[in-house]
């Protein structure tokens, strides 16, 4: 017993060193994307550019059954994040007499298209085209919002007045307050990625990843993804593109996935990520589970299914030009090929 204890301790130390090293490498990759964009977004807020974007989105909001003033909420969420959008919603919504259906439409659109500067850059870093992903996220949000608005109107459901369950605390508008908030966010990302990597190691060790892969394999096959894409897709759908972004980039560029798998996986994660946490956030504002969870999930699966069918009939040159970045996405090794470590 005494002889095995040092061996176990040394093995544990080795695992912790590897986890720490991988976490730092992943976080450095991720922070190179997040920090510059966060600073640029802060300046846009200070200059009032987001307010102007909200005004421009006013007529678009009318197309999905929402008052024009709500455009500022969606603009804030798209340029910054869901939490900032929630703060703006809390300040605007009380005077608009919104129904549950309207709030569900808004919150579902926010879930599909939010944090775009950071998340689109992560998707681009993984090897997909920035403009294509932006069109997919924003266009998908508008289409899903229109479908929900139509279905709620036709069925005359969720038309009662909305009552939000959340009143946000006061936000420190100073640069110092913003900086402290950002540092807390970065610290959370480091802890989450470290925990995630440890959890993934454990799940692989006990065989749960293989089990989940077998369960998801038929669904992923319909969406153009093989077994190698399952862990990556699970990370994105459950944790989100920001928290899991470094892992997504690392896996996408590892060469174990085809270009089609990378695009399909990133597209699905873009439309439907942080499925539990973010859905609960929007339900606090009054969004109904029929839209923020089921509507988004079903729409995302169907949208990616149709995209995969489209990609399969397109010439490879068209796919390379408009959907992926060939220089950043490696093809998986061919049979018999030995990849250098």
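^ structure tokens above, recovered residues below v
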């Amino acid at each position: 017993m005494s002889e095995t204890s040092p061996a176990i301790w040394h093995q544990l130390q080795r695992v912790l060193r590897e986890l720490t090293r991988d976490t730092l490498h992943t976080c450095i990759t991720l922070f190179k994307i997040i920090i510059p964009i966060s600073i640029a977004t802060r300046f846009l807020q200070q200059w009032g550019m987001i307010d102007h974007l909200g005004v421009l989105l006013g007529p678009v909001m009318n197309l999905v059954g929402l008052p024009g003033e709500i455009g500022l909420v969606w603009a804030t969420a798209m340029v910054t994040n869901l939490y900032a959008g929630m703060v703006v919603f809390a300040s605007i919504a009380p005077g608009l007499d919104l129904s549950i259906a309207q709030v569900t439409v808004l919150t579902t659109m926010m879930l599909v298209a939010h944090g775009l500067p950071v998340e689109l850059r992560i998707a681009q870093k993984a090897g997909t085209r920035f403009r294509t992903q932006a069109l997919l996220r924003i266009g998908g949000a508008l289409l899903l919002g229109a479908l929900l608005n139509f279905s709620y109107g036709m069925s005359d459901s969720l038309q009662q007045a909305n009552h939000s369950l959340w009143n946000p605390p006061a936000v420190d508008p100073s640069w110092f307050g913003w900086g402290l908030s950002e540092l807390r966010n970065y610290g959370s990302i480091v802890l989450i990625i470290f925990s995630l990597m440890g959890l993934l190691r454990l799940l692989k060790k006990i065989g749960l990843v293989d089990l989940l892969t077998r369960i998801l394999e038929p669904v992923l096959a319909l969406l153009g993804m093989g077994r190698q894409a399952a862990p990556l897709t699970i990370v994105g759908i459950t944790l989100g593109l920001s928290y899991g972004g470094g892992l997504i980039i690392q896996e996408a560029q590892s060469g174990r996935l085809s270009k089609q798998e990378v695009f399909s996986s990133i597209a699905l994660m873009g439309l439907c990520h942080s499925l539990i946490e973010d859905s609960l956030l929007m339900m606090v504002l009054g969004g109904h589970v029929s839209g923020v969870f089921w509507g988004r999930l079903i729409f995302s699966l169907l949208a990616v299914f149709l995209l995969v069918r489209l990609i399969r009939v397109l010439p490879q040159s068209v796919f390379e030009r408009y959907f992926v970045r060939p220089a950043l996405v490696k093809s998986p090794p061919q049979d018999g090929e030995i990849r250098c470590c």
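DSSP finds 16 helices and no strands in the chain.
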